[in-house]
Automatic annotation (TrEMBL):
Protein name per UniProt: Ribosomal RNA large subunit methyltransferase F
Gene designation per UniProt: rlmF
Domain of life according to the entry: Bacteria
Keywords: Cytoplasm, Methyltransferase, rRNA processing, S-adenosyl-L-methionine, Transferase
Cellular compartment(s): Cytoplasm
Family: Belongs to the methyltransferase superfamily. METTL16/RlmF family.
Amino acid sequence: MPAKPHAQARSPAPRLHPRNRHRGQYDFARLLEACPALKSHVRPNAHGLPSIDFANPQSVRLLNRALLADWYGIDDWDIPAAYLCPPIPGRADYVHCLADLLAECQQGRLPQGHAIRLLDIGVGANAIYPLLAHAEYGWSCVGADIDKVALANCQAILAANPAFAAHIELRHQPHADSMFSHIIASGEHFDVTMCNPPFHASRAAAAAGSQRKWRNLGKGGQAEGRQPLLNFGGQENELCYPGGEQAFVASMIGESVRFARRCCWFTSLLSSADSLPALRHVLREAGVKQSRVLDMAQGQKRSRLLAWSFWDAAGQQAWAARYWPVPDQASAAGKR
């Protein structure tokens, strides 16, 4: 019997999520208190307001350190040279969108607490998604990666933040072509998975993307006869995959079938809307019951979140009833 067509929904015009802490202008006075080293990187922008050079990897790294310390209580965050340096507002948006997806399973009530389990495929050296997910919602998280150097840096961040370390686990993926296999243990479940996939098919494509970013930032790297820096960095496995993000996410969807009953929602970021038609076909072939495409934006950057589930709405409600504790009504009333 052919699979029933899966439900689809599309969000309104993209903007930062309503619960995102970074919707307004950065308060640089506060940020400099949180990270004094950022001071030498702050300059007036074209409007006379304090800002940084977003084409400078060091400036972006220090801004991240300040934001994480000031807004989320995360100390001593850092990454090795040339590793992916994530833009915090956009990463926070992804986490809030996941909370909204899970809220659908329980009549719109946001899921909070350690019982909620998140799996980050490709946690990188920055551990940003588990850190934000635990800071915002108290979730328990597993971060997986093929790169042992990246995982060692994540472990150093957690060592400096024991309150986070108690609820974030790191796992090494020994097989470069696997995503969920060798990570999800027998009998283990996750409420939601997430991934920031390698967007490019090659280093040349990554360099072209960086050149576009430089033009958007008003820089002229190529005109000066040099390749632009990747202002957010990135190792080969963070940036590139044969066939790019479309091939990577298609492989992820194919592997997710084996874990269909072990996860409530699977998700991945997508950089290009051009990847969607082919991936929708893959989702239909996989027999998913529901899918979502949520548009997201940060400044000039546009992206989207692709989510899929092998559970229908009734199955997801049963999932929530089984795995998520009912909040104490008296406590909830007292906090209102």
